[in-house]
Amino acid sequence: MGKAIRKGWGPLLLLCAGLLILTLFFAWGALAWPCSPTQPSGDSLEAPGPAHWLGTDDLGIDIYAQLSRGFFSSMGLGLACGALTALIGGGLGMLAGYKGGGVQAAVDLAVQVFLAVPQLPVLIVLGAFWGQDRRLVIGLIAAFSWAPVAKQTAAKTRSAAHRTYVQAARSWGANSWYILKNHLAADVLPVVLVGALAVVGKAILQESALAYLGLSDPTAKSWGLMINRASRFAGIYFTDYWKWWLAAPVAALMLTILFTRLLARWLEQRLLEGSV
Fold first, then answer.
1. How far is CA 195 from the centre of its chain?
2. Which of 21-35, 151-165, 256-270 has the least mean pLDDT?
């Protein structure tokens, strides 16, 4: 391990350890914690204690149980957005980078359009008109997140397509699918994975913003919805209630996004340096 740290892998180990600790902490709350995330289990606005590690909200519902449900809800949504983004952006990017010509021009135009559109205001408008379905939120976030992945993937595919072994495969009559699957996928896949991981943190933040504005599933224990309810409680900033009711979901949101984004950034730097 010391050799790995000297080679610059220490930050990766720390980030993975941080994500693992968060996951285990909230897994205990989701699977083994006796309090319900939806039903009252204590007094209203009860301070943190042995029975309620992070206290309760105004309805007497345990904060830790709600945070634990929200963690897996947010991570599930983020991973779904990342996977869908990788599928769309990676597929279109490889197709554009390999085919070139009109296909590349069309994909590049779509990429420029989606990069120029302000994402959050459009998500707010579309969410307000089309409802609060979770699948719709995933689709909307992925629709506005695939462009950077497609742009990077296309550039990597164009570079790899000019290598000698790819040209040799073409000369021997290999079709496009064979070349993409067997010769280009290995070079392009790290770029797609890094782009998808970057989307995970952004998707969690955007979903929380939509939930805070009341544009996501109101039955889900979203961190954004918890922050909304706490911040709207009359006089919360003049009491001690904010210390557990408001600060806890804000801290959980910040830590989760911080770890995922730093992990994506670290992998991106290693990839650009040719170390991945």
1. 10
2. 151-165
Supply 109's token pair: 């135009």
- Rounded CA separation 156/158 (Å): 6
- Which tokens in the block code for residue 137? 């939120």
Helices (H) and strands (E) in the chain, counts: 13, 0
| Segments making up each domain of the chain, as ranges | 76-217+255-272
What is the end-to-end Cα distance of the chain in Å, rounded? 18
pTM here? 0.85
φ, ψ of residue 56 in degrees (nearest 5):
-130, 165
Question: Top-level CATH class of 76-217+255-272?
Answer: mainly alpha
* Spatial CA neighbour of 36 closest among 67, 70, 66: 66
| Angstrom distance (rounded) from CA 189 to CA 193 | 6
Chain-centroid distance of CA 169 in Å reads 37
pLDDT 10s digits, 127-180: 777 766 788 888 888 988 999 999 999 988 888 877 777 777 777 766 777 777
Q: How far apart are CA 31 and CA 98, in angstroms?
A: 47
What are 86-96's pLDDT values in tens digits? 999 999 998 89
d(CA 156, CA 95): 11
Return the bridge partners of 62, or none. Answer: 56
Residue 56, beta-bridge partner list: 62
Sorting pLDDT into bands at 50, 70 and 90, what band is 273?
Answer: low
Residue with tokens 């719709």: 136
Measured at the CA of 18, the angle between CA 12 and CA 19, to 5 degrees, comes to 90
Closest to 256 in 3D by CA, of 23, 14, 13 = 23
For residue 131, what pLDDT is reported? 64
Q: How far apart are CA 211 and CA 118, in angstroms?
A: 18
Q: Among residues 226, 230, 224, which one has the least CA distance to residue 211?
A: 224
